[in-house]
Amino acid sequence: MSDSAAHSPLWWAAPTAPGAVDATVTVPGSKSVTNRALVLAAHSAEPGWVRRPLRSRDTVLMADALRAMGVQIDETVNPDGGEAWRIIPAGLHGPATVDVGNAGTVMRFLPPVAALADGPVRFEGDARAYERPLHGVIDALRALGARIDDEGRGSLPLTVYGAGSLTGGAVDVDASSSSQFVSALLLSGPRFNKGLEVRHTGRTLPSAPHIRMTVDMLRKAGARVDAPEDGGTRNVWRVTAGALLGRDLTVEPDLSNAAPFLAAALVTGGQVTVPGWPRRTTQPGDALREIFTRMGGTYEQTDRALTFRGTGRIRGITADLGAVGELTPVIAAVAALAEDESRLTGIAHLRLHETDRLAALAKELGALGCDVEETEDGLRIRPRPLHGGDFHTYDDHRLATAAAVVGLAVDGVWVENVATTAKTLPDFPELWTAMLGGGDVAEGDATGGAAAAGGTADPGGGPSGEAAGRG
Fold first, then answer.
1. What pLDDT was estimated at residue 25?
2. What does the CA dihedral 171, 204, 214, 394 come to, rounded to 10 degrees?
3. Is residue 448 within a helix (H) or strand (E), and if so which, with residue range?
C-alpha cells in the first residue's frame, strides 16, 4: 500500500474472481455511434431519433455542445425501455462555449460543425485535452476557408469564427496520429457548399474501422460517399454536398466496452454472454472475437447474442492492433496473465490518447511484476508471477478496466480513480461486481442483478465490498 493511496477516497479494490464467471452482461450503447449520430442529426434537414444512446461523460459533452450551438435535443424514454433522444436541427450559431472534457470525438468532430455556425464558438477542456493533437482538423478547416484562432498551438483552447457556411472542396490531411481527423471532416462534409474530398497523406492510418463507421452512417443518413474500400482511390474519401435525412437510429452495444467482460471469461475459464452483438458492424470491438479466440477462448454467436468461453488456458499473442488500438489495454492485461510472451504492434498512436497508454501500461503492469517492454510501436509482454499493488489510471477509462481484469486473478490490486470509467462506461464497478455474482447484468439494474445472485453491487469492489480509502 502506498502512503499516498492509504488516505485517499479514490482507490477501488479490484475484486478477485471466486471462480469461473457465468453471466449475461448487457453492455450500454456505443460511444462512437452515439456521438456520430448526434452530429449527423444536428446536420439533418429534419428531426430524428437516437434510441438507446450511451449516456456517459463523452456523449453528454457532445449533446451539451450541440445545444450550445442551437440544436434542440429532447431526452425521453422508449416504450420498451432505454432512453430516446429527439434531435431537432436548427440554425447553428454562436457565441457559444464548448467544454470538450477529454473526449476526442467532441474536440475533433465539432470544430467543423462550428465552422458552419453563425458566430464564434470557443473550445475548452480538461488539461490533458490541451496536449492532444488537433492540427489535422485545424489546418484542414483553414485550407477550406474557416477562420480559427489557436494562437499557433495546433491544439486547444481555440475559437472557431463561424461564417454560417464553408466552401469545402479538396483538402490534404495527415491523420497518422488519429483517424478522427478524417471522420471529423467527413461528418460535416455534406453541409459544405462544394462537398468535400479528403486525402490522407500520412504513412499510417490508425483505427481505420472508425472511418468505415463514419462512412456507413453517412450513407444511411442519405449522403453520397466514395471511399477507398469501394474501389476508389487509396486514402481518398469524397462526400457530395446535399441534405441529410433525419433518421430513427437504435445504437448498437459498445463492443469495445465489452472487452473487459469477455476477458473475464477468458481469465477465469468461465463464460459471458453479451446480448445484441451485431452480425455486421463497423465497430473495432468486433475484432475481440478473433483476438480472444487466438488467446485461448471460444465463442458462439446467434442473432441474439455472443457467448464467449474461456478454456482455462491463456495463450500469448502476436498481433498488429493498429486498426483496433482502443482494445490494447485490456488485451495487454490478459497477455500479462498468459502462459507465454505477447507482442502488440501498430499502436504508436496510443501515446496521444487520453494518456500515453503504452508508457502507462508498461509502468503499471510492470509494477505488479510483469516484464513489459515498450517498443517503438507497441509492447512486448513477458508474463511473470504477479502480485498486488497500486494501479494508476491517469484518468484513462481503459486503463481502469484493464486493471480490473488483472485483479480477477491477482489479489490486492488497487485501482486509482475507477470513476474515470464514466467517460464511456457508466456504472462499471457495479456491472463488474454484479458479473462476478452471476446472472443477468445490465446498466442501471446492476445492483438488482448482484443481489439476486447473492453478491453485492457496492461500487467499492466485489464480494468483499472494500472501497475507497485503505487506511
1. 97
2. -110
3. helix 446-452
Residue range 31-250 forms a domain whose CATH class is alpha beta
Residues comprising the chain, all counted: 471
Is 471's pLDDT higher than 50?
A: no
pLDDT tens, residue by residue, 76-105:
998 888 899 999 999 999 999 999 999 999
Q: Where are the domains of the chain?
A: 3-29+253-452, 31-250
**8-state DSSP, 393:** -
Three-class DSSP labels, 82-121: CEEEEEECCCCECCEEEECCCCHHHHHHHHHHHHCCEEEE
pLDDT value at residue 209: 94
290, with CB counted inside 10 A (0-12, 13-18, 19+), is exposed
**The three grid cell numbers given for residue 441, joined into one nine-digit string:** 447484468
Mapped onto helix, strand or coil, the DSSP state of residue 280 is: coil
Q: What is the pLDDT at residue 352?
A: 81
Question: Stretch 274-288: mean pLDDT, rounded?
Answer: 97
Question: Would residue 326 show up in a list of annotated catalytic residues for this protein?
Answer: yes
- What is the distance between the alpha carbons of residues 181 and 138, in angstroms, rounded to a whole number? 9
Q: For 171, how many CA atoms within 13 A lie in the half-sphere containing its CB? A: 29
What is the residue whose three cell numbers read 462506461?
Answer: 425
Q: Strand pairing of 22-26 and 342-345?
A: unpaired
Listed range (126-135, 155-164, 356-365) with the worst mean pLDDT: 126-135
Architecture of domain 3-29+253-452: Alpha-beta prism (3.65)
Q: Bridge partners of 120? A: 161
* Reported confidence tier of residue 388, pLDDT bands at 50, 70, 90: very high
Quickly list H helices, 221-356. 259-268, 288-294, 328-335
Question: Which stretches of 243-356 are DSSP H helices?
Answer: 259-268, 288-294, 328-335
The whole-number average pLDDT for the span 185-205 is 97
Among residues 75, 124, 197, 326, the one annotated as catalytic is 326
Backbone phi and psi for residue 66, each to the nearest 5 degrees, phi listed first: -65, -40
Is residue 256's pLDDT more than 50?
Answer: yes
Residues forming beta bridges with residue 459, ordered by sequence position:
none
Model confidence pLDDT, tens digit, residues 328-357:
999 999 999 999 999 999 999 999 877 899
